[in-house]
Fold:
Amino acid sequence: MSEAVLQRKLARAEAKVRLLESLIEDKTRELYLQTVALKASNETLERIFDAMPGPVLVLDEHLVVQRFNRSALKLLEATPLLLTGLPATRFFPTIEASVARVDVEGGAVMTEAEWRLEGPALPVLATLARFSDGVERHVVVIATDLRDRKALELELRHAQKLEAIGALAAGVAHEVNTPLQFISDNVDFLVEALTSFDAFARRIEEAAPGIWSRVSEEPAFEELPFFRERIPKSLGRVKSGLERVTEIVRALKDFSHPGGEKAPVRLAPLVHRAVTVGRHELKGMDVQVEVPEGLEAYGYESDLNQVMLNLLVNAAHAIVDRHGDATLGRIRVFVDGGPEQVVLHVQDNGGGMPPAVQARVFEPFFTTKPVGKGTGQGLPICRKLIVERHGGRLWFDSAPGEGTTFHIGLPVAAAPSSGATHEPTRRAAGG
Structure:
């Protein structure tokens, strides 16, 4: 073979090599661009996955956690190291039954459950579905935190109970008021009649002492001096008792009135009414009300009734918990404020609250009372009524071993605009 032929073959071979190199370079560039695009897409999906507001977990065939987003970590209060490779049955005990439903029914299955890892049980609505990545089957779990919904449901039930109790109290007050009035009128008649009789007897005694002496010596009249002395006193006590019952009935009737629109509310009668309705819890305690008669705030009277009663009862419970003897309890309700806001203070000499409790008193379902004694909804509802319904403030000062003072800041008049109002940061006593 001549050298020229060899040169031509070599040239063709080199051309093919250059073509192959060019093709390889193009393919490499194409693969690189695809890899970059795929990486960017994966990063975008990861960001979307992590940014989802609800907890999302991906489990393998054995229900072991493989992937999770930030919301899942936050809900379970877990670290990535703790959650990675963790069997889902550890925090979701009923998951196997739910996955079995997915396999039978197909598609997605929704179920309410309680998740618990380290902290308290968390009510969630879990949506479960299966998917395959071509190699392995997985289970994806999307959860919705139901704590707020459960709190709203409990608050609604509480409001419905209060409404029913209010309607019942109003009905009872109305029904009791008529016989009370009837009894009171008859007692008034007896008092008047006995007063007239006693005046008549005294005139006889003064005008005809001999006749009176003979009459009073009769066996039928030997108890007459005792009756003349004691009956008016007994009827006076009956009259006082009736007035007290009438006051309670009137307070119940006013307290249970639902009210409609916001309006000026006189604070002194409101506080006295709450003291009257809560008298059973406050029995034996020294309750001082220092609220000027003409002072008003702007709001819903029925809401403020509920808040004041709740704070007074809480103060009474704190006093009994500390002293054991109600007669050692002192509760003082007083006011201050300016032209735009009035502040009601409810001060007690109970045991106060430790810092750990102070940080959680407005947290729904939190309570220091034994099971069956408290729901942990009283103060959260008070806060909601004052802050959200009235645009006011509710905060407190507390010193362990000394007592607690709750402060209610209320507008004096209707707000010119509906701007949001936030309560100030809680202040601990001595802070």
